[in-house]
Amino acid sequence: MAIWQDNFWARIGLQETDKAKCIEAVKRRYDRHHVEEFECQGYCSFTLLVSWLEDSNNFERGSHSDAGTFAPVVVQFRPAQHALDVDIAREASRLYPSLAPKVRALDLYLPGNLYAYELSRLPGKPLSGLLPHKLLPGTELRAKQETLVTSFAHVVAQGWPSKAGKQRRDSVVRADSPSMEKQSMLLLCTGKVGSCVTQKLQKLVRELPVKWLRERAMITLDNFCVLEDYPIVLNHGDLIPSNILVDEQTWEITGLVDWAEAEQLPFGTCLFGLEHLLGFVQLSSPNSTRPVFAYQEDAVRLRQLFWTTLISVVPELEGRQGEVQAMRDMGVLLWHGYAWDEGAIDRVVDEVNDGEELAKLRAFLSV
């Protein structure tokens, strides 16, 4: 999440008066509560913080809640194209009970075909406001970086089927023949990206602007097509620092927000998020406008720490790291090989318009 709210209403074709109507609708819904704009806002949503009025002593029967039972929540408005799938959100909360917010849809009268949701408030600060955006000596922030990376490994490990409390019958695909197995696996990938993974990779093979990236996309496509006996799990679709909440003092992960792009995909597809923890985008030189992704001095060691931790938590991954890394590469290509374009996600990135995404592709696929 970031500070985007100044442009949100214009971006979705609404006005400040519509913003006021939304805030008023929440105040009516949560009578005797304090409603304020949330400190951190996302690009695709507008969020309010709702808390109990401490000086309200005249609680009346029938109002929304009372001070003894009401915990602060956030109310989020989203346009139709960025609506939350409440079923997916509930699945995230089940799989990650301490990390994903509990979500419910709100029936409010709102302008512009907006949707409203109530979400439990998670502790922590957005990691994007804490990560350095300059190269630092290896010893500076070392303890926090190690905590962050090991914490990230534990988060990823929770997605492995055996770590989810009970094994889902459909999470690990087995069939009588590889062709049946592949068909069954693809049927489990039902989301916006997962339902057309093969086609999206094929398009990258044809259209990525750099030859070696096209070749890497072909290798990744081949790896996906021969994948067998591999779990399909819920992946957070936008696992970047602005959506990761951490303890400000230790950098241990305390929450994951914005599950709007989450969907069922092969385990490890979300691992492009690890690279975002290890570096930052900067200009290639003071006189250049070409962005590059610069890794911190300790990036190689921290990446190895991640894998060591992940395998120690999920021993079943011993000997399968190559498969997980192949799905990690697929995630890198699918998320950074396509331009966002206000959520269309159907245009392959190019050198003219998408320098930052290409910088990430070059860096993430070179390690």
Quick rundown:
This is Aminoglycoside phosphotransferase domain-containing protein. It comes from Didymella heteroderae. By secondary structure, the protein is of the alpha+beta class.
Describe this structure as you would to a colleague.
It holds the Pfam family APH. Residues 72-262 form the Aminoglycoside phosphotransferase domain. The protein is 35% helix and 15% strand. With 367 residues, it is an alpha+beta fold. Strand 8 (244-246) and strand 9 (253-256) form a beta hairpin. The longest helix is centred in the middle third of the chain and has 16 residues, at 142-157.
Fill in the keyword field for this structure.
12 strands, five-stranded antiparallel sheet, alpha+beta, 11 helices, 367 residues, 35% helix
